[in-house]
């Protein structure tokens, strides 16, 4: 091995961790220590709060926190907080919001709000015997055994909605599931769901042990493999949509409203049938979704996993958004499966998360679902609008210009020169370098 493993890394102080890393991996270069420490918050209590969000924390990793204004959602005008590093995401979302503000804005509908979890178990028993046991005994016991866990959630209007026995033995020998659906109201509910499921596993084992329905060999064969929520929530779905007359689809690209609508619909249809395009198409959707998910302290990895599983639910990966042109009406919408919360976790701790939720009017979990779907739809509209008219690079590279100039060490005066220089030109990396060298040579 090129380095020595370490015992007890987690027990070192923060400075101790940094010293070890720099000496072991970075040749003792103090510049790296300075990089880490310059991102520490000057408020020691706030820094400690951030460090306790995760393990072995040695610094903070900053992302730009931007605002996309002018979102008219279900009659309310909102400014969306977006934590994202990719050039042009906030600008594209803002431009799309402004485009739709005088056309009725975005409309949303919560289609369903169920979340899922499973107890996965192996049981060498005839399926009909297990089904009889579940229907006439176990299901009731499972609800009873979790009454203490669900009490507070039930007071808020949520709880366990249903429990089903799922026979998966045709796919894997002796494999069954207890599949439960939940309503977690304003919390994402991961801890609540997992606590219920772990109790399911215990209760299943206890009830099988005392049941007269099974032989001793059958009882001995029961193995609880795991109890865990699913991040695939196909029954926790929100729809966001925009629509207007084709005559009102005014665009400054120089093409007619009719051509714009036709090309836009073709672009969406291509993403519905072509997985190579759908992947990039949906990545753009998630640019908008994830930026607000992160800003509101939710789990963007769960959001991503769920959205992409949903996009492939019929066996082929497809677009999350859809478009129709009927009777002179342009309609564009998204059905987004998403599970988020506005209480618990970082929402009660992270100062910027609390700011984000306050900025959004302290939304309920369902209202936040709507906002996230709108953000994804707006981002996708902005991307497709560019793709079928001027091309994606014109706007993207203009936003990326400052990144290139910062890499080259440009002064503020030089940056202003380039903003003016590219006002009526498409930004390319080659052209930036050429003009930069010319400018410096003067």
Automatic annotation (TrEMBL):
<keyword id="KW-0520">NAD</keyword>
<dbReference type="GO" id="GO:0015936">
    <property type="term" value="P:coenzyme A metabolic process"/>
</dbReference>
<dbReference type="Pfam" id="PF00368">
    <property type="entry name" value="HMG-CoA_red"/>
</dbReference>
<comment type="pathway">
    <text>Metabolic intermediate metabolism; (R)-mevalonate degradation; (S)-3-hydroxy-3-methylglutaryl-CoA from (R)-mevalonate: step 1/1.</text>
</comment>
<dbReference type="InterPro" id="IPR009023">
    <property type="entry name" value="HMG_CoA_Rdtase_NAD(P)-bd_sf"/>
</dbReference>
<dbReference type="InterPro" id="IPR002202">
    <property type="entry name" value="HMG_CoA_Rdtase"/>
</dbReference>
<dbReference type="GO" id="GO:0140643">
    <property type="term" value="F:hydroxymethylglutaryl-CoA reductase (NADH) activity"/>
</dbReference>
<dbReference type="InterPro" id="IPR009029">
    <property type="entry name" value="HMG_CoA_Rdtase_sub-bd_dom_sf"/>
</dbReference>
<dbReference type="InterPro" id="IPR004553">
    <property type="entry name" value="HMG_CoA_Rdtase_bac-typ"/>
</dbReference>
<dbReference type="InterPro" id="IPR023074">
    <property type="entry name" value="HMG_CoA_Rdtase_cat_sf"/>
</dbReference>
<dbReference type="GO" id="GO:0004420">
    <property type="term" value="F:hydroxymethylglutaryl-CoA reductase (NADPH) activity"/>
</dbReference>
<keyword id="KW-0560">Oxidoreductase</keyword>
<protein>
    <recommendedName>
        <fullName>3-hydroxy-3-methylglutaryl coenzyme A reductase</fullName>
        <ecNumber>1.1.1.88</ecNumber>
    </recommendedName>
</protein>
<comment type="similarity">
    <text>Belongs to the HMG-CoA reductase family.</text>
</comment>
């Amino acid at each position: 091995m090129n380095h020595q493993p370490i015992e007890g890394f987690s027990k070192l102080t923060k400075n101790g961790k940094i010293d070890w890393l720099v000496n072991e991996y970075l040749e003792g270069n103090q510049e790296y220590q300075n990089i880490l420490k310059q991102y520490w918050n000057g408020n020691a209590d706030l820094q400690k709060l951030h460090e306790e969000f995760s393990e072995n924390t040695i610094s903070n990793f900053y992302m730009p926190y931007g605002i996309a204004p002018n979102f008219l959602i279900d009659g309310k005008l909102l400014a969306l907080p977006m934590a994202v590093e990719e050039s042009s995401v906030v600008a594209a979302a803002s431009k799309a919001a402004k485009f739709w503000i005088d056309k009725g804005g975005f409309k949303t509908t919560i289609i369903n709000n169920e979340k899922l979890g499973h107890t996965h178990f192996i049981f060498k028993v005839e399926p009909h015997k297990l089904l009889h046991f579940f229907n006439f005994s176990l299901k009731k016991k499972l609800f009873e055994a979790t009454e203490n866990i669900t009490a507070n959630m039930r007071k808020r209007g949520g709880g366990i909605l249903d429990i089903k026995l799922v026979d998966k033995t045709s796919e894997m020998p002796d494999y069954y599931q207890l599949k439960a659906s939940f309503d977690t109201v304003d919390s994402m509910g991961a801890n609540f769901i997992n606590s219920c499921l772990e109790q399911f596993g215990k209760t299943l084992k206890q009830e099988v042990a005392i049941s007269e329905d099974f032989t001793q060999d059958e009882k001995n064969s029961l193995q609880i493999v795991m109890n865990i929520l699913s991040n695939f929530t196909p029954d926790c779905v929100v729809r966001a949509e925009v629509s207007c007359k084709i005559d009102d689809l005014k665009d400054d690209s120089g093409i007619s409203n009719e051509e714009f609508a036709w090309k836009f619909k073709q672009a969406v249809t291509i993403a519905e049938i072509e997985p190579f395009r759908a992947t990039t198409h949906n990545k753009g959707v998630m640019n908008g979704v994830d930026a607000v998910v992160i800003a509101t302290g939710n789990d963007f990895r769960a959001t991503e996993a769920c959205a992409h599983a949903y996009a492939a639910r019929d066996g082929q990966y497809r677009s999350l958004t859809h478009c129709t042109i009927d009777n002179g009406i342009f309609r564009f919408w998204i059905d987004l499966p998403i599970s988020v919360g506005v209480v618990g976790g970082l929402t009660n701790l992270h100062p910027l998360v609390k700011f984000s939720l306050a900025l959004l009017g302290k939304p309920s979990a369902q209202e936040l679902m709507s906002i996230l779907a709108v953000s994804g739809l707006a981002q996708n509209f902005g991307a497709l609008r560019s793709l079928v008219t001027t091309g994606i690079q014109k706007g993207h590279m203009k936003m990326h210009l400052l990144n290139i100039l910062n890499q080259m060490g440009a002064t503020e005066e030089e940056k202003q020169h380039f903003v003016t220089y590219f006002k009526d030109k498409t930004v390319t990396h080659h052209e930036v370098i050429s003009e930069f060298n010319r400018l410096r040579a003067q």
